[in-house]
Amino acid sequence: MDNSTAEKGSPGQEQQAAGVGILLQIMMLVLSFVVGHVLRRHKFYYLPEASASLLIGLIVGGLANISDTERSIRAWFNFHEEFFFLFLLPPIIFQSGFSLSPKPFFSNFGAIVTFAIFGTFIASVVTGVLVYLGGLMYLMYKLPFVECLMFGALISATDPVTVLSIFQELGTDMNLYALVFGESVLNDAMAISLYRTMSVVRSNDPSGQNFFMVIVRFLETFVGSMSAGVGVGFTSALLFKYAGLDIDNLQNLECCLFVLFPYFSYMLAEGLGLSGIVSILFTGIVMKHYTFSNLSENSQRFVSDFFHLISSLAETFIFIYMGFDIAMEKHSWSHVGFIFFSILFIAIARAVNVFSCAYLINLVRPAHRQIPSKHQKALCYSGLRGAMAFALALQSVHDLEEGHGQIIFTATTAIVVLTVLLIGGSTGTMLEALQVVGDGHDAHLGEGFEGNNGYVPTSREEDETTGNKLRMKLKEFHRSAASFSEIDRNYLTPFFTSQNGDSEDEEDDPMPSSRRGVYHGHS
Amino acid sequence: MDNSTAEKGSPGQEQQAAGVGILLQIMMLVLSFVVGHVLRRHKFYYLPEASASLLIGLIVGGLANISDTERSIRAWFNFHEEFFFLFLLPPIIFQSGFSLSPKPFFSNFGAIVTFAIFGTFIASVVTGVLVYLGGLMYLMYKLPFVECLMFGALISATDPVTVLSIFQELGTDMNLYALVFGESVLNDAMAISLYRTMSVVRSNDPSGQNFFMVIVRFLETFVGSMSAGVGVGFTSALLFKYAGLDIDNLQNLECCLFVLFPYFSYMLAEGLGLSGIVSILFTGIVMKHYTFSNLSENSQRFVSDFFHLISSLAETFIFIYMGFDIAMEKHSWSHVGFIFFSILFIAIARAVNVFSCAYLINLVRPAHRQIPSKHQKALCYSGLRGAMAFALALQSVHDLEEGHGQIIFTATTAIVVLTVLLIGGSTGTMLEALQVVGDGHDAHLGEGFEGNNGYVPTSREEDETTGNKLRMKLKEFHRSAASFSEIDRNYLTPFFTSQNGDSEDEEDDPMPSSRRGVYHGHS
């Protein structure tokens, strides 16, 4: 797994050490899956799978810490953030794009984009500014302003995997599910782009920087990566449409090619100096929406199971690793104040993000499609931090000197563990208190969505004079998002897939089927 | 892919370089699959898939060699034999065990074991002795005797993937297919055990070694690894039999656990200082035979496709890498004599192996089950060298000093490329000349196999007095191999699977279905 730290000389010895390390990791993986399964079967929602994996990592790490073999075990587990970024994150991010079911996603497209792009930007800036002010007021360790913004960006990537799995168990409103899931998928892309932009700003000469350049850099990363991802996705769609691989028992070839494309997209973006994560995410969305339907039926079943399997393994592994790492790593616990106030500040930033964006969205939505207050609270509550924040923090250790990266890493790890354990454990209770679960899957599905394509009925006509201009602008944006569905149906789908536009109704599944269990949605 | 050689400092830069390297590899993989597919579709048997991959690697390597970017491309491609042994070989070896169809394998069990164990031992020793004698006679570079035996061992691992794929295309006698496939699967285990034994003998004080200790070491490696593999396989069978995961839409959990077991077996053996390759091979055989039938139907389909996909990718990648490597590496071409005579000697050793073992087997088999001369020739002809020989040679570079490992590596690479290109390209022609293809799949299937279980009719009664004692011994062995099928049917299958013993007839497929294309055998 990692060749750089192990001493050279005897490859056999080295291989044996690596063997034992990986063996331990596999045993923890197996244990996590089994424990997670047992807990789920007994409907014990206080310890979701992710929390269980984290705890297993914590316990094994703690045991390894006590025993005197620490150094060697540490070496086996020691992989760089490179391993994370090249091998663990891509399948997870691809899968999150791939398992977006297009219909609820597109019908809430405007709201999701608002939360993910605008909201994440607000949350990053609010967190960064608050952390900087906290430093100025001697509440916490003082970081330079740019580094505060980097921290704000990386900590704004949410990962509500636990909340979503409980939504699925208990059943919830489809729009709420789409909002939580869609926001978390897209805000990863936003957070990583913001982080990279700030990182570039920091490493360049700070005097020559102006706000305009920052915006350009950000657009370069975000739009560039997105275009690369979408481009690769469309290329794959055309390839599978015209190569005629869905006949002839060529499923193995078909699957091999399909599986290589996401990685190709990832590496293409990295090779161009863009963000592979953002790219693979959009490749996932495009490949699911267009390429997927060009596959033969058997290959469709296989690839969705394949990506589900790979991402489950990677995700469980990341949670185990995070637990193990927090038990083993020499963290700078002296900065406990930093951790405490960070948690406070990200909670504030999350609330600012959700409620301000929801206010804007409700301004433009018709009365029957308002995001109700309880959904806003549930969305605010779903702000768990996970793999992406951890991976970026791991990278910040390399990016920042003077131990600043170490402080950010420790704070991020603590935030991830706390949010996963506390929010994850209390989700069931909280969601029931908010009365957003158990509505049945399609309670809100049938009504109100038809008006979304094109014309938005202005049933809520009490125009406040102050918000009026803003509202008109937002509505315009809303309409353009809606008209995207039309472009998709009329031009993109017929061009990139072998089906005609109308048949997309078959994908009416309220929750991504591949999340529910292999083959379940297809049998 | 490799962290140790790239300079530290800027992880972003490093990541970008790795990105471009992996991007290139993915593009070559895609190209290989597409070219292989086009060639197969046009029934162009002179350039099978493996050869095409090798050539693509050679060409890209050659181009990279010409361009001035050589150094950086070399760094991207530079992975240790560790990467091979930990990530590329395990899926291939597991898949070869997993795709053994039990029935033809067990009905030719005695012959396969004779070829693989006894024959590979003969071939290794013959090659080693000839190379040593060649060195003494100044025909080629003189290596120490132990190193000659190591070379003999590693070069005796055959990999007839090309031959087998052409067998499948053209259709051949099922017994011949079982012999070629079974021998190549088991002789990998034998070769690696012999190589490791010799490696231990070499590194220890040579004065204290005697023949007895060598045997003990060999048994330790081979039997120990085999037991570990079989043990893990049986454990998995019991787990899946009693865990009740085949209900309840738990296929994802089921698949995750199933996929982790082979790797667990591999790492367990490595951790114990045994051979992970041998272990994972036997885990594959046991898991296919017992665990597999305890899975739910959907998971069965998924896991066989999964392993097929993973091993196809790894195999293609290895051939590309071999081609790339031979174009890039600074080989010691001064030892061209070594290469020439090695090729001669391994051809002799292969012939000695096949014809002497076939003679022994024919002594004991009844007249209607003799291995005909044309099958012997086809078997002898199928002695291509591939991934395993390459991987062991890569390791020998680390194991042997004074450039001896480099000589062995160069010779092995040359042998692999030549056998894959020449034998692979001429297989179609040769097999048709031998009239062993086009017999139809089950021409020989129905007849003559029933007598194999238990009683062997001694229809060929002209007992030569010299061979008599040997024959009686061989027959005893043959009977014990046959009685293994009975133990399997009466005790092992009922104990480890949820089916009763009779139902194994459903697996009557003459060729491993997963080799033929995803889902093909199941639809």
Short description:
With 523 residues, the first copy, chain A, is mostly helical.
Total number of β-strand segments of chain A? 0
Identify the overall geometry of chain A.
globular
* Oligomeric form: homodimer
Number of domains of chain A: 1
CATH topology of chain A, which one? Answer: Na+/H+ antiporter like fold
Mean pLDDT of chain A: 76
Could you tell me which chain pair has the largest interface and how many residues each side has? A-B, 66 and 66 residues
**Are there runs of chain A of 5+ residues with pLDDT below 50, and where?**
1-11, 440-464, 501-523
Number of helices of chain A: 18
Radius of gyration of chain A: 23 Å
CATH architecture field of chain A: Up-down Bundle
Query: What characterizes the major β-sheet of chain A?
Result: none
Distance between the termini of chain A: 38 Å
Percent strand of chain A: under 5%
One letter per element, helices H and strands E, the order of chain A comes to: HHHHHHHHHHHHHHHHHH
Write down the CATH class of chain A: Mainly Alpha
Helix content of chain A: over 70%
What class, by secondary structure content of chain A? mainly alpha
Subcellular location (chains A, B): Membrane
GO molecular function (chains A, B): potassium:proton antiporter activity; sodium:proton antiporter activity
Protein name (chains A, B): Sodium/hydrogen exchanger
Keywords (chains A, B): Antiport, Ion transport, Membrane, Potassium, Potassium transport, Sodium, Sodium transport, Transmembrane, Transmembrane helix, Transport
